[in-house]
Prior knowledge:
two-stranded parallel sheet, selenocysteine, Glutaredoxin, 4 helices, oxidoreductase, globular, 35% helix, 4 strands, alpha+beta, thyroid hormones biosynthesis
Amino acid sequence: FLASLKSFIELAQYHNELNSPIDFIIIYIKEAHASDGWKFDHPQFSFIANHQDIKDRLDAVKILMDMGNITEENKIDVYCDTMDDHTNHLFYGWPERLYILYDEKILYHGGEGPHEYSVPSLAYFLKHNI
Length: 130
């Protein structure tokens, strides 16, 4: 799963409601609406600057985890992509996307966010296929 703050929160809420042994992993990729780049007009949505190094990216992960209230109790592992955006390129994750992986295979490849990003579609797939 590659995502934004809103998506972090939405997925964490779904994970808590699901109460399932399914592992949720979030991979934070480059900032879609950086405060010093392609930003929204309101600072509520664009407050993280483009990452200059891996420390900046890790700091952004910590901010988003705090804002999304993602803790060890949520049992959601959060990682960040490398500065060369390896995971983003591998999964076409920008700006955000949902995946279900099992046994080294992609079972579900969600639509490109934000418009085709859908936790309800993910939930439907899980309910009917897993």
